[in-house]
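just leaving the lab so this will be short. below you get a single protein, a line of residues and a line of whole numbers that encode the local backbone shape. id like you to explain what the token line says about the fold, in plain words if possible. thanks a lot i owe you, the record is right below:

…
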Amino acid sequence: MPDVTETKTEAAVDAAAAPAAADGKGKTQDKPRSLWGDAWFDLRHRPMFWVSSILLLALLIVAAFPGLFTGADPKDGDLTNHFLTKPELGHFFQPDWFGYDGQGRSIYARVIYGTRASIMVGVGVTAAVTLVGGLLGMLAGYFGGWLDSIISRVTDIFFGIPFLLGAMVVLNSFTDRKVYVVILALAFLGWTSICRVMRASVITAKQADYVTAARALGAGTPRILFRHVLPNALAPTIVVATIALGGYISAEATLSFLGLGLAEPTISWGIDIAQGSQDIRDNPHALLFPAGMLSLTVFAFIMLGDAVRDALDPKLR
């Protein structure tokens, strides 16, 4: 037989979520927008959101289909292409548009193909830390007690490890540092901020009246967590994750610059910045173009994170 308590709970919740009753003329009243509806309405009127979204969409297309933007091989070095030759800024989308590096490789082609590794690392690390940190923070904030104490102490231990220094130590133990290795190393140390933000949000959300009402009506723990607590505690986590994504891309470039991140034959902006810095006096464009692309990408993610934060925080409206 069906569970009567669960049936009543679902009926009560569905009734509370139903649209407003029809008026005397048979027309339904407009439903009030939810937090996410208000956020989307606010985002659509923010130029910063559209500028950052267009930039990131372009970067994602470049990362997914680099062959559409250049026919040059980024690994093909031809020493007849002298690296001291100035870039041909009028040769749009041509191999010599940004000039050549010390090995005669097209800087433009390497900038285009380097987008994929940086975007993959940033998105991969953000997804991993959001999943792990969000789950641990939700469990610690909702259940409290000894589980909260254990998770909080483990979080404090990881917080005490300097992020870049810890990543250098972890990556130094690998001889073959591919994209997935860098993602795992950065995610291993980067989940703590998301965990703390989610924990604080869940502690606030679980004290709300709608959670108390759902519990009184007999709703189970999974239903309360995923139907009531999580949707209302997710906004701060999304903001932190969006802003942190640019930081993870920057961290990957820093580690690659130091020789402890991605390594050849992987194409990365950090690797090109490290190589270009050796000839910065004679060949500054070998450094400036990959560094400029990196800065533009990080800036776009930070702009998007700021726009999302302003839209999701009612105090900033």
